[in-house]
Structure formats: C-alpha cells, structure tokens
Amino acid sequence: MSKITQSKNFKYIILALLFLGWCLGNLDRFVINYAIVGITQDLGMSASAQGIILSSFFLGYAIMQIPGGAMADRFGYRKVILFSLFSWSIFTIFTGFAWSFLSLILVRFLFGIGEGSFFPSGSKAIAINFPMNQRSRAMSIMLSSAAIMGVITPIVSGHALETIGWRSLFYIIGAVGILISFLMFFFLKEPARQPVLSAVGDRKEKASLKTVLKTPLIWNLFISYFSIYAVNWGLQSWMPTYMVNVRGLDLTQMGLLAAIPAVVSIFTMILSGYALDRIPAGKDRIIGSIFGVLVALFLYFMNTAGSIAMFVTYQTIVTVLAGFISTLIISKSLKTMPETVVATANGFINTGAQLAGFLTPMLIGFLVDASGGSYTTAFIMLIGFSVICSVSLMFNRRSGAGISAEAQTASP
After folding, report:
1. Average pLDDT for 389-409
2. What ranges make up the beta strands (E) of 240-284?
3. Fewer CB within 10 A of the terminal residue: the chain, N end or C end?
4. Helix 342-370 to helix 118-129 angle, to the nearest 10 degrees?
5. Which parts of 8-165 fold into alpha helices (H)?
C-alpha cells in the first residue's frame, strides 16, 4: 500500500474535526425530537403527522448515503464534508422559518440530503488516516458524539424551548454550523496521495458500488444496522413525547432524565471501540448477537416498568448494548473492505440505518394513533427489530481476509 506522508498528529486532528462536525450533526438531528412537542402544538398536528415530520429527514439522509460515499471515494473526503456541513447548517436555519406541515417536511427532507454525505466521507477519512488496528476505536470516538449530544441536547433544548422557543433555537444552531464550516475549511486537510493498492495484493482497485453489492457481508451488515437503528431511532424520536405524555414529566424533568442514558453511553461507546480492536475475529459477532437478545429483553422491561426510575435504568442498559452493536457493525467494513471503496460500503450500510430512521418514527406514530395512545405495540415492534439484528449477526461468518479478496476480485 502506498505510504502517505503526514505529521505524527495529523490523524488526531482529522479525528477531532470529524468529532466536532458529527457533534453538530447529532445536535441538529436530536433537537427536533424535543422541539416537535412545541411544533405540533403551534401548528396543530396529530401523532401521525409528527411521525412523518420526524421521518422526513431520514428519507433525504438515506438517499444521499450511497452517492455521498461514491463522491468521497471519487473526489476525496474533504470536499464532500465541507459541502455537507455547510448545506445542512443552512437548512437548520430554514427549519426555524417553517410555517406549515408541508413546509416543515420539505425543509427536513432537504436537511437530510445535506447531511447525508458526512458519515460515509468521514468513514473514508478514518480508513485512510488510521491503521487497521485503530479503526474501531477511531470510529467509536466519532460515534460517541451521539452519546455526548444525547446528554447536551435534552438539557439545552428543555431550557431553550421554554425560554426562546423552537424557531430561535434552530436559528442559533444553524449559525453555529456555518461557523464550524469555516473552521473545517481552514483546518480539515486531506493527504495529497490516496492509497491505490489493496491490503491483500498489488492490483489497483476502482471504487465501485458493484464491488460493494457483491460482498455478502455488506448485505448482512446492512440488515443488522437497519434493525439496531430501528431501535435507536424509535427511542430517540419518541421517548421525549412518551415521557411527557405517558409518564407525566415536564420538559425540564424530561431533559434531565433523558440525559442519564447518554452520559453512561459516552464512556461505554468509547470502550467498545477499544474492545473491538482486541476481540478475535468471529467472537465479535457472537457477543453482538447475545447483546441483541438482551436489547429485546430490556425493551420489554422498559414497557412494563412500574416507575420512572426503573424505566430510565432499563433505557440506559438498552442504550449501552445498542451502542456496542452499532460500533461493531459500522467498524467491521472499515477493517474488511478496500480503502478505495470503504466510503461507498459504509454509505450503503448506513443507508439501512437511515431507512430505519425514516420508517420507525412514522410507524410508531401510526401505531400510537391506532391503539388510542398506547405505546405497547410500538415496544413490541422494537423488540422484533432487536431479535432480527441478533439473528443477522449470529449468521455472519465471513472472514475479513476473504471479504477483502472477494471485493478486490469484483473490482473492474
């Protein structure tokens, strides 16, 4: 493989910038879950309409995963990241201008289009700048931004929504995003030379979606990621509303309690990356499969919890277990796919997660309406997804070397 000349700390600067950008991305995505309570009151919308609004972002986001990854593989990650960050910040500001149900759906859809290229291009940046045995921990640090924003967002949102309102909150977040875009422009760099040879041979590889789609493991990871993110986004999008409407909390109480699972998962997410870099090949899928079953079990306990304290305890356990599974799935392709197609591969896998993000909030909204305000059927659906994830991980038996060789053979 070609060696890239870079300073000793170059990869850490890249990771710090990716982390900062993804913190903003998660803040932008999470805040709508809290703002939606006020938005639906102001615009007079039902639970089904609320679910459609929450899902509209994920449709746009999912659409851009594969094109965003392909562009990063073709043109480099820096250009794609800069465009993605700036454009989604603009649409965050536009969210504050929404005046109707349809305008809000359109803005959130375009917001998803803008943000959709960031994750696959960030994955490529990690694959290029970090050696194989450090990629899980690098990815876990990037993914831990979701846990950190899971702490900050409910606390900040709960207070801000009661003081300045949801429109002003989106204006402020969008302005911060534009400032971070300029920071990225000056400090986010890309090596002058990209690796052009496979880790398992001397043939040059051409970035190709066909290469990705011919790799069985990628389809397995797609299903697993779809399933675990159906759980993640089902909880993220509806727990604020559930805790206010069903558990009887006000926005400030809800914000503080919602931060507890996120605080715990910050540390467990990072630790999971270090652990996955040390777990022997094949053992990770077994552990992940067991964790999937445990997610199903504790989702059941959440639904039947007799107190808010036990509910939050079970939610914290679910968040920790799901975080490990998510890190396992998305870092696996970083270690098995050639660097010239890794952004396309992760874009395809992440499409599964975003399709789950599109479908799950909307389905929960319909289920809640159909059951007269009960969330039991929604929890049953999430339990089913966690079982599917567990089964998919258990039957993933392909070795990393075999996958890389297969992907290389499939390249033109």
Report:
1. 60
2. none
3. C
4. 140
5. 10-43, 47-63, 65-75, 77-95, 101-115, 118-129, 135-163
